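Exercise 7 asks you to align residues with tokens for two separate proteins.
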Amino acid sequence: VATSSRTSSFEAKTQNHKELFKVFSHVVKGDDPALTAGKPAPDIFLTAASRFPGGAPEANNVLIFEDAPAGVAAALAAKMNVVMVPDSNLDKALLGKAHAELTSLEEFNPADWGLPPYPSL
């Protein structure tokens, strides 16, 4: 997870989802000391990628989900793939820059990105 939210805000937003966030290997927040610039600079995504066990994957093997134009710009600046899931109230003029756009994460098809399908329930 790479979020522009500062630690205190991230904790407040995720307090009811602790179990979900345990599945992520790491979280980089906006007040991380390694960051020198915020979005739309690529720093947060490059930092997050560098913290994967075994080191950073090739940028073209990273898939970012973003809801904000600055985040899309940051992902593109990092040379990473980006899927935008914008708020329905976002000005439509700010759309069209991501590799793909969805109205909901439920629309995401892993196969479109060469990923394995979701397990059957």
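Second protein for Exercise 7:
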Amino acid sequence: INAEYGVLDPSSLKFKYTLSQHLSTVRACSFVKSNSQSTSHELASVGADEKVYIWDVDTEQVKGEIGGHSNWITDCDWRNDNILTTSYDLTTKIWDRRAVPQFKDRPPAVGVRAIRISKDRTKVFALLNDLTEIQLEFPSLREIARHQAEENVSDCGGHDLCPSDEESWTVVSYGKQVQLQQEGQLVDAWEIEGGCGCCSKWNPLPDKRQFVVGSHSSSSSLEIIDADTQDSEVLDADGWVYSVDWSLDGQYIVSSSSPSSTVWKYDPDGGGDDDDDDEEVSWDEIAELPASYYCAINSNGSRVALITSNGRLGYENLPMGGAVFDVSTQEKLYELERTSDLRSAIAISFTSDDRFIVVSIASGSDYGCPMIRMYETMTGKIVAQFCSPSKANLKMNVFIWEGQPAVLCGDDNGDIYFLRLKLKE
């Protein structure tokens, strides 16, 4: 069942009603089991969106929300005041129902899926849970909190905002289909050869309306699609593709896969070839790096930062730490400081001047809150970190503001934060 579940009336076995709040697949649910004579009709549901929702089945309303896992929640059980959850993040957690905040008038979800700032630093573009894109005048960021999404949609495998400030384009990939949207309206769609799209990234060059989609299935691949001509190139990936990144000069692509990650370089003369049908392609594989879950490549393609993984296949591939690699030698330069914290990482990026590496860490970390952490690129040392006041995980856009590194991030609650690192002269 995708993003919703139903309640059956046992006396008639007829469908009674639907409860919808999750943004991805619902994995399990449990009614409260009490040793007392309580008449409470509460239900807990868990899903691939890493959330636990508490429901009043009489009113069909959400009464509370729990966030704290950093990967899919796979199962749950509820007895008295204790809610037990298990997750692909390799943890089992017990929650106290009495500590879950109560929702009175629950607004529709306004979470942020992707976010970026315009090149002239005057506007913010945000892709929301309902796949609508809104534009905000910077720094009037509070406007997003007043946006009310009309409905939730299934969690998309990948979504990215076009880098052009003149065009409002979004690429969304999920299942076998890739959709191109403009101002929230479907413009075009493609079937991808890999079978199940899980991540996507626009070419960072504004004059190139081109994007790459990573997939996982029996035939894992990267597919580079031109939005104008609908031409595409398929690059073979070594296992499931979990994330992709594109260098700022548009010449390099890196993909996170297991058992290994791969770097490609653009070759306009078509020097490479596809292993399946020997068709000539315009991208050459130039480096093979360790297995990873998330990846970032610097502006000129010389260094790659990876959230390294355990190297297992499929859903058993899990984040384990962070390291930086030299692309030409394929050697590890260093591990990122406090690398064990990065088992809860959900995104990684270089700043555009390549001086810093920024990581978004989920609320399931040892700190108990989502955070943005910034590392010095040359040493891997931590220079700053921001802990979010809420439990909602942060999506981020990294850029330079008046010569200093800055991060614009949005969370599942619709809150947006502008973070700026002030470096000493």
